[in-house]
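re the bet — no i am not wrong, look at it urself. input seq straight from the record:
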Amino acid sequence: MVQDLASPADRQTHFQMWRSFLEAHSTVVKQLERRMQEQHGLPLAWWDVLLQLADGPDGRPRMGDLVELVLLTCSGITRLVDRMVGEELVARKPCPGDRRGYYAVITENGKEIIEKIGPDHSNDAWEGFLGHMTQEEAAVLGQVFSRVLNAGK
């Protein structure tokens, strides 16, 4: 823990920030979801899965591990991937030595979607969140978020 919050005023300030953070997160995710649907007809959760697969170290996590990687949904990942397989954005590949295990693998179509949608999504993220802070604020938030993420490991 970085700071001991002994005084009620300190705690109140932190909890007000916490509430604003939750509201901002919810608002931004809803905006990004709406824009992704309007511009590309793609659910934001699909974008998340594609990015996790494209950015992953080997690009093919086991289906059970994909649940831990995605940021926007953790329920129904099997059905979500099934729909993405149907759209030829993701493929299932058997895990050697495990008859019941499968990897999720991004397809060439999935990679093309990332290339196509990436600039629009980046612009939407800038307009909805990133562009509302200074360079210094972004640096501080990056440090805070990194510290929180590292503490959770």
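see?? The first helix runs from residue 8 to 40. told u. also Strands lie at 90-95, 98-106. so pay up
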